[in-house]
Write a structure and sequence with these properties.
Elements: H1 2-15, H2 24-29, E1 48-50, E2 55-56, H3 59-68, E3 74-75, H4 84-98, E4 117-119, E5 125-128, E6 141-142, E7 152-155, E8 158-161
Antiparallel strand pairs: 1-2, 1-3, 4-5, 5-6, 7-8
Length: 164
């Protein structure tokens, strides 16, 4: 039943047009307890490194993650120069081994950037992503690889979809 809820949540997110709001970690968070969803929008920005290699932009964001993963600790000093994709991949792989075998794990290129096509091995869905790993609305397809190249222009963090 839980896998069905995860699949429904994934499909709803992919089709809701909220491509700019979720990443690999969101797929993991869908199954998490709601009590860990604290609002960190007003938290002072002071980056800190966590024991899983991720850099959090505030102590609030770290506490939210620690709520979900009590073993998480703050590491003194900056995190190693690890790309966001590699950090998310490492984190989701650890979580998949512990608790959530159906979690989405991102695919990274050799240089640490996100592969332009991401696939969820559990659901069979694949979709196009921005260079920052954000899913592009309307590109998800079941059991095949979407054609991403040349269809989208990227402007900063926003995705502008244009049919060419």
């Amino acid at each position: 039943m839980r896998a069905r809820v995860s699949l429904l949540a994934l499909l709803c997110l992919l089709h809701a047009g909220r491509a700019h709001r979720f990443s690999a970690l969101t797929f993991l968070r869908v199954d998490q307890d709601k009590e860990c969803n604290m609002d960190c929008s007003g938290a002072p920005r002071k980056p800190l490194c966590a024991s899983d290699g991720r850099t959090f932009s505030s102590r609030c964001e770290f506490q939210r993650a620690k709520c979900r993963d009590p073993q998480l600790e703050v590491i003194r000093g900056p995190c190693k120069d690890t790309s966001r994709c590699v950090a998310e991949k490492k984190y989701t792989e650890q979580q998949a081994k512990k608790l959530f075998p159906q979690v989405f794990v991102p695919v990274c290129n050799p240089d640490g950037t996100y592969s332009e096509v991401q696939c969820h091995s559990y659901t069979g869905y694949c979709w196009c992503v921005t260079p920052n790993g954000k899913p592009i609305s309307g590109t998800a397809v079941a059991n095949k690889k979407p054609r991403c190249q040349g269809k989208f222009f990227f402007y900063h963090e926003c995705t502008i979809c244009l049919c060419l």
